[in-house]
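Chapter review: from sequence to fold.
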Amino acid sequence: MSCITPVNRTRRHLRRQMTGLNLIEVMVGLAIGMIGVVIILQTMQFFEARQRTTTGGSDAQVTGTLAMYELDRDIKQAGMGFGRAARDGAAQTYLGCTVDASTTATGDIDFLFTPVFITQGAAGAPDQIDVLYGSSRLYVTGQIFDASPGPFSKTTRVIAGFQPGDLVVIAAETGGQCALAEITSNTNADGRTLEHAAAAEYTRAAAYGGDEVTALYNPVGGTGTALLSGQLFNLGSRPDGGNNVAVATLNRWAIANNRLVLTDRLTSDPDAPTVTEVAENIINLQAQYLIDDDNDSSTALVVSDVAPVAPANWSNVQAVRLAVLARSRQYEGERVNGAVVQVTPAAPTWAGGAFVMTNIDGSASGAADGSANDWRQYRYRVYESTIVLRNMIWGLE
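The token string follows.
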């Protein structure tokens, strides 16, 4: 009969404790660990996708708000300095004429003498908006001129309010003829005649810096024989006025490369315009005129995509309605039962109707395919505003 000593029992017990985990236990542990890793990764992926969606939506909201703010701010100033050009009740109007304008730096920059002019995009493409307003601190209504001693001068009834360096729109009394000129002198001996000589060197008004400059906006041949009498509308300092003063402004708003861009037409080369990016991820801009076609403020305004044809009808344009469409940069490719979910199944709409949608690469919208090029896989925000042309309304009072 053998005898097991306490020492032997202790050794067998230690050997059992030192055997470790068997293969099954290791595999079970790895499986549990892998499940945990998969769950964590899926949670992080879901969180990141939602975070990108939220961030993308926030970016679209910020850029859309910025775009609408800048448009609203600019258009509200439209017509400053020539509100009385509509001549309410008169058979003729100074509005609607083509302003013969050019610069020695960039050449021809003709434009329509209206506070706002909308160029409709073809087949739902983004519209283009031109906004014209002045900045004169001394004169904000038309001044009659009754003689033109020469192609580079105009004799007014009152010379006050016009300074060297001002840009003026010269409108013929008979209507239909307009020109842009730069005042180069207001010191004629008769106290009534303003000079606008081509390429003249002159000293700008102290308010504009008082520096020596060369006239940029006076055509070589002057204003000719068509502008012998009419009115002068002061737009204030030419665009490079000193002392940080406000200047005459002719802005063009448009969409380029999915961005809202601005062009200063008075300083930009028409053949190679310089554009300033205002807001990104803006893919469409739509605008319409609101017209009081019966001159009765008690009836609803008529919505029109088309600018007035008759010059006299420009006085009936009371407001502009516009909308911008902002798009998120985040592609939404979530799948349910193997199919990609469309986050925007129908084209966004505004008061003027549905936007015409194009794919991300600019191609025409086709059938939904769930790809990153499909416009339906992105989120959109629409911003709308109706902007009253208050300078024109005040001018009719």
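Two observations follow directly from the output. The radius of gyration is 34 Å. The longest helix spans residues 23-75.
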